[in-house]
Amino acid sequence: MALITLGIETSCDETGMAVLEDGQRVLANSLYSQVIIHRKFGGVVPEIASRRHLLKLVPLMESVLTAAGLDLGGIDLIAATRGPGLIGPLLVGLCFAKALALARNIPIVGVNHLEGHLYSACFNGRVKPPFLGLIVSGGHTELISVGAGFRHRLLASTRDDAGGEALDKVGKAMGLPYPAGAKIESLALRGDRQAVIFPLAIMKDGSDDFSFSGIKTAALLEMRKRKLTPRRRADLAASFQEAVCRQLVTRTLRVARRRGVKHLVVGGGVAANGRLRRMFQEELAPGEKIFFPEKGLCTDNALMVAYAGYLRYKAGQRDGDALEAKADLKIT
Ligand code: KG4
Ligand code: ZN
């Protein structure tokens, strides 16, 4: 008998739902993005995000069930994001999921959103642990050693801004709408990557941690120096994107080589970036391999939540009434 998972994602400003059969066949995958609503505020407003999730959860569930040709009786497992993220949005999604599980007597597993990102490149058997995982999104930049059976070890993280956050902030200063990562990528296509050379942040204590606030400030100062003509905007976008990618690639490969790891996996919104993908490919040594999720699975979505929840369920995880949302949930 097939196992049908309903995935629910509400950690930030996207309401996502997906229906996944046996952890491999996508029966439905839908996303309601609130980006347009939050854009005028230059970032996500948690209270507005919570209210929109509340409005959208039921219609979204009805639409994914219809697309999958099922009713609630056909759902065998509910997988819902329990953190990290904005506490209001997390509570709305998780309470909805718990109520559904209780009312229909369906097993539920709480999913760590970061695990969703971490395992999305594994979807459909493309790669299996052990590997070195890099999560780079709007809220996180983490290097994680991933062993079989969910053995995770955090090896490095950002000391200040996340990679996506730095792109968003520099983009905002350039007048680009939120979130700016993908817009910077398209602007960069017309720019010169060498126009501004940003330093590679080196940690004085020799740690592998990331830091993006120095290059972010350098980019903001660059903008004050000279008028931002269309040419200069494209050059700055290309150069700043280059600096963010260079740090991600350099640090990740250094850690992988020191640990003798040959398989690398990248996940999170910034993993959609074409320059990051190419730079990694260019820098790989013989025998090293890198895996990215398909582009649509890099940014927040419910399919990754359904998939990570399915993997956890198969490994024996069962959650009940005690399941709680946690805004600063860590990967363990
Ligand atoms: O994973 P995600 O959707 O949400 C979080 O969990 O944070 O990541 C969103 C981040 C934003 O900072 C956005 O600007 C960035 O991913 N992003 C990109 C691209 N698409 C999204 N950054 C660079 N290039 C892209 N193509
Ligand atoms: Zn995310």
Can you walk through the features of this model?
The protein has 332 residues and is an alpha/beta fold. The chain has two domains: 4-118 and 299-314, Nucleotidyltransferase, domain 5, CATH 3.30.420.40; 129-297, ATPase, nucleotide binding domain (Nucleotidyltransferase, domain 5, 2-Layer Sandwich), CATH 3.30.420.40. It contains ten helices and ten strands. The protein has a five-stranded mixed sheet with strand order 3-2-1-4-5, with helices on both faces. It has a five-stranded mixed sheet with strand order 8-7-6-9-10. Helix 9 links the parallel strand 9 and strand 10 (289-291). Helix 2 (46-68) packs parallel to helix 3 (87-104), helix 7 packs antiparallel against helix 8 and helix 8 crosses helix 9. The longest helix has 30 residues, at 230-259. The site of zinc ion has 5 residues, from helix 4.
At a glance:
41% of the residues lie in helices and 19% in strands. By secondary structure, it is an alpha/beta fold. A hairpin with a 3-residue loop joins strand 7 and strand 8.
Question: How are helices and strands ordered from N to C?
Answer: EEEHHEHEHEEEHHHHEHEH
Counted beta strands: 10
In what order do the strands lie side by side in the largest sheet?
3-2-1-4-5
Estimate percent helicity: 40-55%
Tell me the name of the CATH homologous superfamily of the largest domain.
Answer: ATPase, nucleotide binding domain
- How many strands, which pairing sense, and closed or not: the largest β-sheet? 5 strands, mixed
How would you sum up the global shape? globular
The small-molecule ligands in this entry are: 5'-O-[(R)-(carboxyoxy)(hydroxy)phosphoryl]adenosine, zinc ion
> What is the arithmetic mean of pLDDT?
96
| Low-confidence runs | none
- Please give the domain count: 2
CATH topology of the largest domain: Nucleotidyltransferase, domain 5
Identify the CATH class of the largest domain: Alpha Beta
Distance between the termini: 31 Å
Radius of gyration (CA) equals: 20 Å
Provide the structure class.
alpha/beta
In the CATH hierarchy, the architecture of the largest domain is 2-Layer Sandwich
| Number of helical regions | 10
- Bin the strand percentage: 15-25%
